């Protein structure tokens, strides 16, 4: 039951990301859309985020394989976009996996902070958080 819940939730965000980025060509716009989709997912599914956080960071990772399988698919999508951006000379030459994990971590931890400490966030705040993450993230990796 719990395993199915984890798979359902993670697959839901994965499918939403795929749907949105397939409409786009620019890797920067794809990353922006990933941030928006992931933030909105966490905003709308705060209890799932809390549950997943307990599973991921808990000392008894019972569902490690299920989480890893889906997260590998998700990080592969982001990593491919990072590689695309590097090849198009829109992003600096950096280790794509490190850049991918950094983006995921920024979104996840920013959401976790809000959700864990009882502050829900509105649609306007999602946009503000997205803009801040974009500014922080791209200030160091966009090629001028």
UniProtKB/TrEMBL annotation:
Domain Transcription regulator YsiA C-terminal: 10-122
InterPro entries per UniProt: Tet_transcr_reg_TetR-rel_C_sf, Tscrpt_reg_YsiA_C
Domain of life: Bacteria
Xref: SUPFAM superfamilies: Tetracyclin repressor-like, C-terminal domain
Short name of one Pfam family: TetR_C_4
Protein name: YsiA-like protein, C-terminal region
Organism: Orenia metallireducens
